[in-house]
Amino acid sequence: IVNKTAAVKSAENNKQSSFYNKENVKDAAVLQAIGAYLEMLQNKEQKEIIDSFLEVQEQTLVEIQEMVRVGKIPGLDYVIQNTEKARLNAAYVENSRIINEKTNNLLLSMGTEPGLAIDFEDVDVTLLELGKEYTNVSTDSLYKIALENRNDLKSLSYETKALNFEVSKERGNYYPKINLFYRFGSGYSSFNDRSFKDQFYTDNKATSYGVEVIIPIINGMKQRNQVYEKRMAYEDRELDARQLRNLIYVQISNARSNIEENARNLSYREEQLVLSEKTYQLQKEKYLLGSSTARELAIFHRDLIEASLLKNKVKYQLAYTKYELIYYLGAIATVL
Predict the structure, then answer these.
(1) Phi and psi (nearest 5°) for 198?
(2) Which tens digit of pLDDT belongs to each residue from 131-179?
């Protein structure tokens, strides 16, 4: 009875562990797909930023070409600005390649058919109110939420319970076993002249019944070793569960910190972009008035491009860290 009960309980818990493990794999796949989607959107917006700078550079080249024609500035200035245009064109082409690669990787992770055309919706991540309900919640409170929701922790918990029942099952082999049995059989021989019906149903019938008592004496040491092995496996899983709970707390703490840091970083990058835009316009005016060089203008232009791209990058980093926190809380499925 002890053995059978423990075996049934162990099987039930293993089934639950397998279920939550599959759910955990799904959650990880969802976060991975979200990350790939955000990367694609980031590069798509980055491509648009570069394209806008290319348009501005085209206008600047027209102005400089006219100034060179009338002899106001040397021809070298046109060459320098044309080099900047070539730099932007190269960045545009490279970004297009990255978008195509990211899109294909995303489709692959989603298990779509090769060559299937899918229209991806553009999302303004600045409007996403992700994790707003967790903003003013303490890390300890978020930790409690995660302990209730995390599928990997549930899977490990059920696996630990299953191993504990395995220990009970092996210990059950210490005790004597009493089996009640009843056996019925019959047979037929072709060497006998009697018919099959007479032999099988009348002549060769055999019946036995009784009580079987098994006392584990000889294999006692072997049984001890098996119990010890199961016990060690159970304790290892308990340790894994404890480590996972600690890891969950660290993950939540780090995710909150990353969100705060990225939010501050985004505000700084926005300020940097505004100042870079003003500085570039002032430098361009100085250049057109002849009090600055084309090389200096190109440097300020690069600073402006860098500020725009950095702001774009941090914006999507902030969005991803919000999704990451929701994943660490075991609630990533709720955002779909």
Answers:
(1) -65, -45
(2) 677 778 899 999 999 999 999 999 999 999 988 888 877 776 666 667 7
- Phi then psi for residue 182, to 5 deg, are -145, 125
Beta strands in 95-205 (DSSP E): 177-185
Tell whether the model's pLDDT for residue 272 goes beyond 90. Answer: yes
Query: For residue 24, which of 141, 163, 156 has the smallest C-alpha distance?
Result: 156
CA dist 40 → 44, 101, 107 (Å): 6, 9, 11
Contact partners, residue 91, CB within 8 Å, separation at least 6:
50
- Give the helix/strand (H/E) hosting 209: strand 206-214
Check: CB of residue 168 under 8 Å from CB of residue 231: no
Predicted TM-score (pTM) of this structure: 0.77
Which pair of tokens denotes residue 289? 């008035």
Tokens of 320: 């991803």
Q: Give the C-alpha distances (Å, rounded to integers) separating 1 from 4, 160, 168, 169, 213.
A: 5, 22, 11, 10, 14
DSSP state of 292: S
What is the per-residue pLDDT across 111-123, written as a single tens digit (0 to 9) for each? 777 666 667 676 6
* 142, 257 contact by CB (below 8 A): no
